[in-house]
Structure formats: C-alpha cells, structure tokens
User: What shape does this take?
Amino acid sequence: MTAMLEVADLGHTYQAKDGAHTAIADLSFTVGAGELVCVVGPSGCGKSTLLRTISGLIRPSRGEISLHGNQVRGVPDDLAVVFQDYSRSLFPWLTVVKNVEFPLRRSLGRAERRARAVEALEWVGLSKAHRKYPWQLSGGMQQRVAIARALAYRPALLLMDEPFASVDAQTRFELEDLLLKVRTEHDTTVLVVTHDIDESVYLGDRVLVLSTSPASVVADLKVDLPAQRDQITTRESDEFVALRAEVARLLNVGKAAGEVAARRRANEAQAAKWAEAERAEVSRVEAEERATT
Ligand SMILES: Nc1ncnc2c1ncn2[C@@H]1O[C@H](COP(=O)(O)OP(=O)(O)OP(=O)(O)O)[C@@H](O)[C@H]1O
Assistant: This one.
C-alpha cells in the first residue's frame, strides 16, 4: 500500500512564558492510501498537537511530515479537517449548502461548486436541508454538514479531531457508520483522533496507541475485523472484545511508561540543579581561597 501520510521522528516543544513544554517526544508512523487509522491516547498527551502539525498549522520542532511524498510546509491544499465543535466550525449566517460550498469558492466556478455541495449533502443524507441554516439543525445534523463540507473538498487526507464527542450516543453510532460508508464509497484516507477505545476499534483499520505526554507510539495495532461492521454484532464479537481489551491494556502500558519517563525527567532536572549548585559552591570556595592567598 502506498503511504499517503508519513510522519517521521516527529517531536514538538511549545515555548511558553513559564518554560518549554514538550508535547510530542518522538512519533513515527505511516497511513496508507485509503486507510482509516485511529489515534488514541490519554488526555493531554499531544493528539491535537499531532493533528496541528500534520495540517501545517504549527511547524514541528523536530522531524518530518510528508503528504503523498511532499513535505508539509504550511497548510496543504488537499487536506480537510473536521473538529469536535461543529457549532463553531459552521457559519451561522450561511445556509447549509453555502457552508458546504465555502471552501471551494476560490478553486471552482459557481455551478461546479453547487454540484459538489449537493452531491456531498446527499452522501451524508441531508438532501432536504440545503436551504436551512445550521442553527435550525440538530447537533448530529450539523456535524453531518461539517463532514459533507470536508468531503466536497475531495481531500487526499481527512483529519478528524474527536469528531463525534459532542453528540449523543445514538447519533454517534449513526455518524460512525456514515463515516465508514463514505470512506468505503469514496476511498478516502482518514486519520481520526478519539478518546473512545471502542470507537477506535470499531472505525479503524489500525489503532495507534500513544503514551502520556510527551507522546510516543506505544503500539500500532492492526484491527482484524471484517470490513463490514455493525454496531451490535461487531461490538459483541469475541474479536472486538479482545481488541478493545488490548487497546485498554496498551493505554495503561503507555501511562506507566509516561510516568516512568516523567519521573526520570524530574530526577534528571533535580540532578542538574544539584550539580549546578555544587559547581557554584566550588567556584565560591575557590574564589575565597584566591582572595585569602
Ligand atoms: N500552545 C501551547 N503552549 C504550551 N503548551 C501547550 C500548547 N498547546 C498544548 N500544550 C500542551 O501540550 C500538551 C499536549 O496538548 P494537546 O492539546 O496536543 O493534547 P491532547 O492529547 O489533544 O489533549 P486532550 O486529549 O485533552 O484533547 C498538553 O500538556 C498541553 O497543555
């Protein structure tokens, strides 16, 4: 399988007023064309930072990211992102169809833009909502509009940051199945960040498990479930239950590894402080000796 996305030796350190903070230690992985890969990791481990670096919004401190062979420098043209907070990602003053057309306004003429938007709204089951405004729709429908907008753009890579975390459980299941359907029908390459272990196994061809901050890859797990998934029978299957347990176990391994690494860093920082204090004391004594001789 050709790699659509390649992340190599990625690291990122934020420089803040109260000092440097390393959000990502060392991440390397690839996503093949047409694959759906889920990323799970403990809260605050660096998942959003990872998506921000892939989408070119921040430049990583270390390592390389390539999208179909081209190094990412700035926001790539052929990438779309769906965020958790649909209410802030849609424009309330534009109708549904105009929201979906919006990212295409510079690249396509009016007729083609409209055709793409109408088609994408059909994919997500919103053919009858064109002329409505986002605030007239339920949360799940608004997130469908956000997905339609991303799909209308026909991105090489679709990034999703906790896309279904703000909707109720039933809508979440519907949106998960919608994502699987459009991904199969349109051969889209997708990287999904999620907190939900079950969701990662249900959606993914692979699950990348990250350690606590600073993130590194604890495991890259292949999901060997039949491609055709079903919210009841798949989740009940022995394979699903075993995989879900394995992801949970690996998350704990990652937490423990992260805690050990954090303790080691704290010990190293303490040792460096003591060494510094000792050097200062030696210099002081030497200076006193020089002054008295
Ligand atoms: N702009 C910033 N400046 C300094 N530190 C930051 C900045 N953005 C994030 N961080 C820190 O980097 C670490 C990773 O943050 P990030 O948002 O990437 O994690 P996350 O895994 O997406 O979190 P969550 O699961 O809670 O959404 C956190 O400790 C966070 O406080």
Observations:
- The beta strands are 3-16, 19-32, 36-40, 62-67, 70-71, 79-82, 157-161, 189-193, 206-210, 215-222.
- The pocket of adenosine-5'-triphosphate is lined by residues 14, 16, 21, 23, 41, 43-49, 213 (CB under 6 Å).
- Residues 53 and 59 are 6 Å apart (CA to CA).
